[in-house]
Write a structure and sequence with these properties.
Blueprint lengths: L2 E7 L13 E2 L2 E2 H11 L5 E6 L2 H9 L3 E4 L11 H16 L5 E6 L9 H12 L3 E7 L9 E4 L2 E4 L15 E11 H6 L15 E5 L11 H15 L5
Parallel strand pairs: 1-4, 1-6, 4-5, 7-11
Antiparallel strand pairs: 2-3, 6-10, 7-10, 8-9
Length: 239
């Protein structure tokens, strides 16, 4: 079994341009993802797919192979799976070998639990699933506590009379920390291009994290949150 880690990062961002190399506690944001990938025991190789030259330079300094992300795959409308397939195919052609498992890591997530990548790969293989994603429980933004507005009139999104958090149906969101999937699922998605989630395959599983276990940086506020979480970790302060 050969597992390839694909770090995805693009220079353009509506929230923070070149956010992958924005400073975070004296390091570029993407370097934290480099750490996570290089520390994973289950990954046989790691590549960075990017159109950011500064990010590519940092990757090379860490011994991570880089793949130039084509312009058409670096827009805000390009799909994740299309960029991932390009990276996998390029790596396979370079090394004349094939990956069995592909792990997608977004370069704008500097906070992940230790061992998460290995945990996701282990669960993928043990379950025989098509994909495994990290998820976290929905809290105060639960659908049963959401409303539509007609003017200023509040209309329940899902009619109910729930007022205790404990009575809410457990629901989970994908926090973006890790996606582990089979190569077959990634490339079988080409058969159904209208389904933008097809690359996850028919059998989709999860590993459950706490909401504070992964921080997805999209804007300046997220960057401050990530800094606070990392400082707390360094100080040994529990989340």
């Amino acid at each position: 079994m050969r597992a390839l880690g694909v770090i995805l990062s693009r220079a353009g961002s509506k929230g923070l341009r070149e956010k992958c190399v924005r400073p975070l506690l004296g390091r570029a944001l993407i370097e934290y993802t480099f750490d996570h990938a290089l520390q994973a025991r289950r990954l046989d190789a790691v590549v960075l797919s990017t159109d950011s030259q500064p990010a590519a330079t940092l990757a090379t300094q860490r011994g991570i192979e880089t793949i130039d992300r084509p312009a058409e795959l670096a827009t805000d409308t390009a799909t994740v799976d299309a960029a991932a397939r390009h990276a996998v195919q390029t790596w396979e052609d370079r090394h004349d070998t094939a990956a069995d498992v592909v792990v997608l890591l977004y370069g704008n997530i500097p906070v992940r639990p230790a061992g998460l990548i290995d945990r996701a790969i282990d669960h993928l293989l043990a379950s025989g699933a098509s994909s495994v994603r990290s998820v976290a429980p929905v809290g105060r933004h639960h659908p049963d506590w959401l409303h539509r507005l007609e003017g200023d009139r509040m209309i329940q999104f899902r009619p109910n009379s729930i007022y205790r958090r404990q009575d809410l149906e457990p629901l989970y969101y994908h926090d973006g920390a890790v996606v582990a999937l089979t190569r077959r699922s990634l490339f079988d998605a080409l058969r159904t291009p209208e389904d933008k989630q097809a690359f996850l395959g028919p059998d989709r599983r999860a590993v459950v994290l706490d909401p504070q276990d992964a921080i997805d940086v999209d804007d300046g506020f997220d960057l401050l949150v990530a800094e606070a979480v990392l400082r707390a970790r360094d100080a040994g302060i529990p989340a």
